[in-house]
Amino acid sequence: MTVPIYSQFTYGSSTNYITFNDESGDYIFKARSRIATRRDIRSFDMPVPFDMGVTDFETLIGKTNYIIEGTLYAINESFLYTGLEKLRKAFNPRLAQDDSESDYGYLPLKWTENTSKQLMLKPLYIDIPETRVSAMKPSFRILLKCKYPVITSQGVSTTSFTPTVSGTGGLAIPSTGVAITAVGIQIGTSTGTGSGTIINSGDYPSWPTITFTGVCTNPRIENTTTGEYIQLNYAFIAGQTVTITYDNDTLNIEDNTGTKLLQYVDSSSTYFTLRPGTNQLSFTASNMGAGADCSVAIYSSWPLS
After folding, report:
1. Burial 170-189 (b: 16+ CB within 10 A, else e)
2. pTM for this one?
3. Pick from 188, 203, 266, 282: most CB atoms within 10 A?
4. Cβ–Cβ contacts within 10 Å for residue 194, how many?
5. Cα–Cα distance between 19 and 17 in angstroms, integer?
6. DSSP type of residue 37
C-alpha cells in the first residue's frame, strides 16, 4: 500500500501529530509513505543486539515495516526549526504515546482512499540529514513498525443483537437475606435468540469485539455463515457486562468490574473473524432476563499489500 505522493495524510495523536502535504501553513511536510523494502531496512543500518541473533534483524524486513519520506519546506528559518522540532517530537521512538488514542506506542497514520483508512504504526527511527546544500529544505526518512499488516477503517461499526425472550424465567433475587449468599440467583427458565448482520466493508477478515450483557446464562454468539461460535459457560447477573477482545496475538475476556473470565470459555469455541461483506450472526442464551443483550463491533479491514 502506498499513499499517493501528493495525497494528504496524518500521523499521531490528537495533541501530537503531523499533517503531510498540507500547503496552507508556514511550513510544509511534502512526503509519501509506503511499505519498507529490504533495501530500505539495510540503508538505516539498524544495530541488532549481539545476544539476540541475526533472525531478529529479519523481523524488521518486509511488510512489518513502513517508510515515510519527504522534504520539509518553510517560509523562513524560524519556521524551519519549528517544523523540525514538530517532526522529531511526533516521531520520537522514546515517547510513550500512552494517551487514549495510542495502543502501546502505536498510533494511526490516517488517509482517505475511497473511504477513510488508517494503519497503526510505531516510530523506530527518524533520519534528518543536515547538509549545507539542503539546510533550508531538509529531507527526512522515518522508519516505522506496523502493529499488524492490516489497514482498518477509521470508524468502528457496531451492531446489537437484542434477543426475543421466551419463557417465564430470568427473575434475579438479590442477596439481602441471610440464607441467600449468591447474587443474581435465577428461578424459572427462559431462552432467547437475537440475530442480525454486520458488514465488513473491506476485503480482508476483521477481528470483532464482542460484549455480552446480563441477565443471561451461557451466552453464545455464532457466525451462522461459517458455523463458528464463542460461548461462555457462566451466569451473568443484571447490570453485568463482559467484553471479549482478541486478534493475532492478544486475548482478553473480562467483565465491567475487571474480573477475568477466560476460564469460562467453552472448549469448542472458536475465536472467529468476520469475512468481507455481510456476516450473519446469532445470539442465544438461557435464563434470560430484562436487559440481556449482545453487541459486536468491528473495523473494516484491508490487507497491507
Report:
1. bebeeeeeeeeeeebebeee
2. 0.79
3. 282
4. 20
5. 7
6. P
